[in-house]
Amino acid sequence: MQLFDLHCDTLYECYETGQSLRRNTLCIDREKTDRYEQYTQVFALFCGARPPVPMPERRLLFDVPPKRRLDALLETVRREFADNADWLTLCRDMEDWAWARAHGKKAAFLSIEGAELLEAPGALDRAYDAGVRLVTLAWNRANAYACGAAENNDQPLTPAGRELVQELVRRGIILDVSHLSEAGFWDVCVQTEAPFAATHSNSRACCDHVRNLTDLQFQEILRRGGLVGINLYSPFLRDDGAPAQIDDVLRHIDHFLSLGGQDCLALGADFDGCDSTPEGLQTVADMENLAEAMLSHGYAQSIVNDLFFDNAAAFFTRMLNL
Length: 322
Known about the structure:
With 322 residues, this protein is an alpha/beta fold. It contains twelve helices and nine strands. β5, α6 (159-171) and β6 form a beta-alpha-beta unit.
């Protein structure tokens, strides 16, 4: 089985808890990924949030001065990928990705979740040099560039945000519009015709949450040849407060496919970035349960392959070989 997942917060959790990618109590580690013949994971460098209750056992990124947060996360990146080089390869382009696959290694890409990590002088250069190839323009809060849908869905990009979009496209960094306000989404569309991704976003028609994509947004991503990753967070799968089930994931997949999305659907599970996922999908090792559910639901094996690996691999090949 092959898996290409567009979003997890496991590296951030490694930073705050002191755990390792090799073995941990989190959703992703070496043992949990061993069941996949080919495995590629996009690891997010999350901008940080203060937990609702004190957590003295954690080293909170939020306690680091804002201009130092990116560098703190990059220290974890350097340590983790050096310590795990025997099984996991950090990829900066598709040549690295092909090398990892040819040598039996798991492959990784880096993203930034929340462009406030880029506000310090020289931060974008340091992020790019470290291997960051995707940038989520906003998390839940407003920053110097954009605003998250959770704070104000009607707030457009700032002038600095419009400049950042142009610079990211120029460098060949993939734009990620998950979390972005709806007004910001359409601002991005004005600024560039480049394909972009929503790495971990579901359908608002199936679950009326501001973090989810409207049909019009999804169709715009599809028109551009972009990519959408299905998110496993329960509140983004159903809006009645009940725990989500695998059938809820299938509802979102069904809907996006009904809009013509077979070639642009992928997975962005959000492991270690959410506290509630459907029963049977608790860690990356459980993803075969979703594949089996899709086959039982009547999907052809080719569609399962597209969603689990092929669409993401094709999109990254196009975007990172430009």
